[in-house]
Specification:
alpha+beta; Helix Hairpins; BirA Bifunctional Protein, domain 2; 8-stranded mixed β-sheet
Length: 424
């Protein structure tokens, strides 16, 4: 959430910056509501002052034994007027809050201009796409040929956009998860955390999924409502909600493996084949809680941590700086890692790494201070996938496939696979 004070004081400047995203800030409505709010604020303060003065006069008159009825009559209407003004003021503040919660983050200055993913900027590329001497299959055909991916069984059990894996493919999926967790905890100094897979509305509001993106969430029929997590970013970042961290304890670096659940409400008909876009998938998530002056350094570090997973797996990829029109609601700057998939003959997203600056922290009331005498200030939050496990599995299967449909196991994963070097 943007600072309401900044929106109020620099409304036109904020509107210009948000226009880069293609977001039309309703400055006229905000101005009208703000003008009424300011007038009501003055009115309620005056009414409170008048009521207090008259209450004091009534007390003094009583002490002197004077007739206080005229004073009581003069103050009778003030209570109703004050109650009415306070109710309207509260209503205005709620309306403004609803507007502010719908406003996306202001972009960092070096985010490239553009309106869609076609305008994203390639920052760097690593590795070469394998020169296969045969027509490569995609992961669906490979998995079904090996008889260890069963999409029909998943449809029977749950519906479309799910998968059942068995045998060595299920083992490979687990091996990838363990490999990522070991890398990030042992070499990159993240602290592993285990979190709930079900969260409340306040947690989702804190990281920016609510209220704007409720249709993408799986909501449980409970009172109060709970939601299945769309990403570990939500519960992990909420660890610091309503806290004040000591400056000496920052940065906090967390890694967390969870399943993730998304309705994919806006993607009807898109990526329906295989494991690219599913309702249930697994991720290893990286989260850093940092001092504001260090957040862009943290973004580069976290992105490099995710990249190392791909490098150790020898998977070709590229790093894309998302343009203004393609960047996420809460992010100030985002890098996408896109891995090469021979079965599709294209690069596909496998990780998204973002700096949210103070946008999430303001919602979360997540703060820090250098010493007890210093005033608390908002932290910055940074996170990204390190990596999406299912998409990494897809990339390994397609890049390591052999002409007969078998799949070589990357050398780095063989200790996690009990020494198995080929899946057949």
């Amino acid at each position: 959430m943007l600072d309401p004070k900044v929106i109020r004081s620099d409304l036109n400047v904020v509107a210009q910056q948000l226009a880069r995203r293609g977001y039309p800030l309703d400055t006229r409505r905000i101005t009208l509501l703000e003008d009424e709010r300011k007038a009501l604020q003055v009115q309620t303060q005056q009414l409170q002052s008048d009521r207090n003065k008259r209450a004091k006069a009534i007390g003094q008159a009583k002490a002197k034994g004077e007739d206080v009825q005229p004073l009581l009559d003069s103050v009778a209407h003030l209570g109703d007027e004050l109650k009415s003004a306070e109710a309207r003021l509260n209503q205005l503040q709620l309306q403004l809050t609803d507007i502010f919660l719908d406003v996306p983050n202001i972009l960092n200055d070096d985010v490239p201009d553009g309106s869609s993913e076609a305008d994203n900027l390639e920052v760097r590329r690593w590795g070469e796409a394998p020169a296969l001497a045969f027509d490569p299959k995609d992961h669906v055909d490979l998995g079904e040929q090996l008889q260890h991916m069963h999409f029909d069984a998943a449809v029977k059990i749950a519906g479309s956009r799910f998968n059942v894996m068995t045998g060595p493919i299920a083992h490979l999926h687990r091996a990838l998860t363990q490999f990522m967790l070991d890398l990030h905890t042992r070499e990159h100094n993240y602290v592993e955390v285990y979190v709930p897979y079900i969260v409340n509305a306040k947690s989702l509001s804190g990281t920016g999924q609510l209220p704007k993106f409720e249709e993408d969430l799986f909501k449980l029929n409970t009172d109060p409502p709970y939601y299945l997590i769309p990403t570990a970013e939500v519960p992990v970042t909420n660890i610091v909600r309503d806290t004040v961290q000591r400056g000496e304890d920052l940065p906090l670096k967390y890694v967390c493996y969870t399943p993730c659940f998304r309705r994919e409400a806006g993607t009807y008909g898109k990526d329906t084949r295989g494991m690219i876009r599913q309702h249930q998938f697994d991720k290893v998530e990286l989260v850093q809680i940092v001092k504001p002056q260090h957040s862009y350094q943290a973004l580069e570090e976290l992105t490099a941590n995710a990249e190392q997973v791909l490098q150790l797996l020898q998977l070709p990829y590229r790093v894309m700086a998302l343009c203004a029109g393609d960047i996420g609601f809460s992010a100030a700057k985002t890098y996408d890692l896109e891995v090469w998939l021979p079965g599709q003959q294209k690069y596909r997203e496998i990780s998204s790494c973002s700096n949210f600056e103070a946008f999430q922290a303001r919602r979360l009331k997540a703060r820090w201070r250098e010493s007890e005498s210093d005033k608390p200030q908002l932290v910055h939050t940074v996170n990204g996938s390190g990596l999406a496990v299912g998409r990494t599995l897809v990339a390994v299967m397609e890049n390591y496939q052999q002409s007969d449909g078998r799949i070589s196991v990357p050398a780095i994963l063989r200790p996690y696979m009990g020494g198995v070097d080929v899946i057949e």
